[in-house]
Amino acid sequence: MKTLDFHTDILPMKDRLFRLALSITLDRTEAEDITQETLVRVWERRKEWPQIENIQAWCMTIARRLALDAVEKAKIHAEREAEVADYQRSAISSPAPADEALDRRQRVEAVRRLISQLPEVQRTIIELRDIEGLRYDEIAQLTGISETQVKVYLHRARKKIREQL
Question: Looking at domain 97-165, does it have CATH number 3.40.50.2000?
């Protein structure tokens, strides 16, 4: 098998990687970031290069997955913003009685206080999932624990908060 060189074999693919990312994300800045991240990931996994049959396909797969993840995150973010905007519109158009608003604020504060009292792992996972909107696999990768264990910790944290409310 031929020995691969980053400058002669990988770096020339950057334009092709950029075009792929751009075609998926439709955002030039995001596509540039994805291209850069792809090249970094390929470089970090350079010890695997000799076992890879088609380095170009491998690089394109990495870029494609990163682009699809970026689109998904943008979609989730847009949905959350739409939900917040809908909630704000409904609150303005039909203001809740003062007692209901006070009760809601107290519940939100109680939930925040309960989250802060959770063990660090549970607190981190509930914040990443319920506040940041990350997927289970992303949380598992960030925390270094299995996806199944992430779900278990999240379930326990939510259950504990429900019980204490």
Answer: no
Q: DSSP string of the chain? A: -PPP-IIIIIGGGHHHHHHHHHHHH--HHHHHHHHHHHHHHHHHTGGGGGG-S-HHHHHHHHHHHHHHHHHHHHHHHHHHHHHHHHHHHHHHHSPPPHHHHHHHHHHHHHHHHHHHHS-HHHHHHHIIIIIS---HHHHHHHHTS-HHHHHHHHHHHHHHHHHH-
- Segments of the chain with pLDDT less than 70: 1-2, 87-99, 101-102
pTM over 0.70? The answer is: no
